[in-house]
Structures are given as structure tokens and as C-alpha cells.
Amino acid sequence: MDLSRVNQEIALRRRQAVCVPHGDASGTNRSLALTLSRNLEGLGYAFGPLLVEALACLDAPDIVDLGTSLSKLLKELLEGRREYSPMYPNFPRQVMDMDEAELYFNALVHYWSEGKLLPRTVRGIRAKLLKPPPCKLLDLMTVEGFESLFSQMAGSRLAMSTADQADVEWFISTFGDEISRLLPDVIPCKENLALIGQSLLRNTNLGQEFVEARFKTPTDVLRLLVALSDGDVSLASPTKFKSQPRSIRKLVLGLLDGMRNAGEELSLRREVWLRVGETLHPGEYARRCPKIAREFELLRKDRNKRTF
Fold first, then answer.
1. Is the per-residue pLDDT at 307 higher than 70?
2. Which end of the chain has fewer surrounding CB within 10 Å, N or C?
3. Could you tell me which of 208, 209, 240, 203 has the C-alpha nearest to residue 225?
4. What are the two backbone dihedrals, phi and then psi, of residue 307, each rounded to the nearest 5 degrees?
5. Distance (Å, rounded) from C-alpha 36 to C-alpha 88?
6. With contact defined as beta carbons under 8 Å apart, do 45 and 17 qualify?
7. pTM of structure
8. Cβ-Cβ contacts under 8 Å for 90 (sequence gap 6 or more)
9. In whole numbers, what is the pLDDT of the chain averaged over residues?
10. How far out from the chain centre does Cα 291 lie?
């Protein structure tokens, strides 16, 4: 199970889940895993059944390392809203004994099953400990489940939030060209399409092919240029367009040159496209892209006529 490109913070924040590598301990470290779960109750979380079993199969140092990172991430997600008082502050040196571990596991079973399964009785332990405090259960996430988060965000019909955009950017910059296998066949939201396109252009070798295949209208291209200028891809507010490298200028002018009736759509946002033209320099590509160079020239002439 390859966890080299798993961001546990994203898994926790989006699915209340944790990715765990395959272990060889055959469940022998359950007490250690349960102690970690008991400690995290101080932050309002506990482990679900699949997560307990997966952790129990890890070697002790791996559980300790994962526990340290989980505690840190959960505290950051809570942003100091909860005072943390672990039951076993000297973990991992301090670990619940077998009777405590069995009792706590029974209590969790009762909690997981919403009271449908009764715990076994353990001698010498008071029954009132059988009720763990209400907690959010952390689930086990596979690598495939983690990767599917990107596909779901990219394929959403709704525009991505700021957090979504940051997570999508992380996926693309981390996976590089391998992100191609996670891209959905259809990206229905044009705003998302623009943001993904700009990230692919900046972080992978897939950008040009992606843009050429999926950007069908001048407005699609305009959103892409807005994204490359860190502007508002909804086009609700003006953008200060940034100068683009020659490769990007050739790409977008070539796309526009091959679109039917591009001039009509450009004229609907004449002033915006004239500002775009100042960064694209279409006249320099008049031989390669004669139609769109001509359209930009007509936009300038039309503006001059209206001025007089």
C-alpha cells in the first residue's frame, strides 16, 4: 500500500478518515492502538472498527509515529477550540493494561454498533467505564479512496471552494503526470475546468493536450487566462491579466484561431479581450493564427470608432 502521496490532513478534513499501511503484526498491537484511540478522545475523536484492526497490525513504532502525526493534525484542525487532556500523557511508555484494553474495546464495540452488541464483562473493572464519551469516529481509508477525492472534486457540477482549489492543486502538483488516471472523463463546471487546466499547465506535461481537448469556446479560454492570472474564474470581477510565456500564447491563440464564430463571442466582451490581447500579442502570430489576429484587429478598430 503506497502512502508516499497521501495527505492525511486532507483525508481527515474531508472524510474523517486515516490511511494506514499494510502491517505484519497480525493484530498483536491492539492495546497500543486502543491506547492511542483513548488519548484522542480528549480531542473528540475515537477510532472506528476497521481503523483499530488496521493499526493493530502495525509495528509499535509505526503506531507511535502515526499517533504523533494524528494528534498534531487534529489539534490543528480544531484550531485550539478544545483543551487536550490525554488519558495516557506518557504514551507510548504508558499503555493501558490488558484488562483496561479489553474493557475499552468492548465499550467501543457497543459504541460502534449503537448499543446493539453488548460488551463482555471484565472482572475488577467498574461498569461505568463501559460508556465512552461521544466522539467522532475516524474511519480507515484506502489509497484508492483517498485518490478518489480528487476525481470527485474535479468532476463536481459545483464550483470548487477555496479549500477545494487548494486540495486539487496539491493533488496535481504531487502526482504530476500520473494525475491523468484520476481525471474524470467530464468536468461539467467551466470554472473548475479553467482551474484544473491552469494547474496542469503549471505542474505537468499534460496541460496542452488537456486544454486542446476540453476547451471549446472563447469563454473557456478566457477563464483559463483568468486562472493563469490568479483572477476570478467566475468572471464576476475584473482581472489584471499577467504576461504569459510564449508557449501559453501560442496555445491559446491557436485554440481561438480554430474556433468558429470566435469574433462574435470576443465582441461581447470587447474591452476584456482587448486587455487580453495586450498580453497575448496576437499580431506576432498573424502568420500562424491569421483569423484570430484579424479579430483582435477588428476589436481595436471598433473601439477607436466608438471613441470618436
1. no
2. C
3. 240
4. -65, -40
5. 8
6. no
7. 0.86
8. none
9. 88
10. 40
Three-state secondary structure string covering 121-151: CCCCCCHHHHCCCCCEEEEEECHHHHHHHHH
Count how many residues are written for the chain.
308
Q: Please state, in angstroms and rounded to a whole number, the distance separating the CA atoms of residues 19 and 305.
A: 63
- Name the helix (H) or strand (E) containing 55: helix 49-56
> Which one, of 192, 242, 241, 244, lies nearest residue 220 by Cα?
192
Return the C-alpha cell found at 271.
474591452
Confidence band, pLDDT 50/70/90 cuts, at residue 256: very high
Extended strands (E) in the chain: 17-19, 45-47, 136-141
Chain position carrying cell 491559446: 252
Give the integer Cα–Cα distance in Å for 306 and 295.
17
Phi-psi region of 261 (alpha: psi -120 to 50; beta: other; left: phi over 0): left
